[in-house]
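May I ask you for just one protein sequence along with its backbone structure tokens in two labelled lines?

_____
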Amino acid sequence: MTDTTIELHGGAVGGTASVGDYMALLKPRVMILVVYSAIAGMAAAPGGLHPVLALAAVLCITVGAGASGAINMWYDRDIDAVMKRTALRPIPQGRVNPDEALAFGVVLSVAPVLLLGLAVNWVAAALLALASAFYVFVYTIWLKRRTPQNIVIGGAAGAFPPMIGWAAVTGDVTLASVILFAIIFFWTPPHFWALSLFASADYEKAGVPMLPVVAGARETKRQMLAYTLILLPLATAPWFVGIAGTAYLATSVVLGLLFVLCAVRVLRADATDMKPAKRMFGFSILYLFVLFGVLIAERLVA
């Protein structure tokens, strides 16, 4: 057994971790999307929330999502160490003790749920707890290493933030909030599979059964196109249920068609050409930010 393996499974000696290392455990880039989509859910919800309570709700959702990321990094420290894109994370590098990372994640998972329940309402708090538990137990521990559908089912965890934001304002779950959930749910597979296409060697080396590794690139590309075709009409649904205006409707159609076009280009690309997949991955992020940005903007000017 190598020294690296001893560090990963026995626990690296603490003391070298910086504040930045602990922030990295929270997966800040993922947190940005979580915050943004939660704000979209709050903006789309009928009624309003005191600015202080709204800020508290966003903070709780942010910390709760980050805590799930920290526990994910603790559990996945062995595969993170062998994957090129994750090898520099704090735990594989030995800068953060795995036990400390776990404790950090658990504390930050419980605290925001309690604060959200006490300060805002317990429906939103229950949804936050469900999202965290789903990400840790269903996606990270159960699905990720067992099935190529890991990101499809497990992706539900990342779709909760707009529903939580909605519940923070209204105290309930409605069809409209479920639609916002569904948009992210169906957006996640083509977004993540685009990444997995050009990172498939990493996943194969780590033994993670991502769809390109198990079913091949061609089948992955077909399923990516299928999900973008489902997303195209689904993204217009907020207009039909009355929580979005015509600007949103037009934007959702244009973005949806462009997303489908990206998927078609990926499908037609040569097996060795990863540029279309990389472009689709980048566009998928832009897609969600613009779509929800228009939703938020409409509510601000209404």
The two ends are 63 Å apart (CA to CA). The first helix runs from residue 3 to 10.
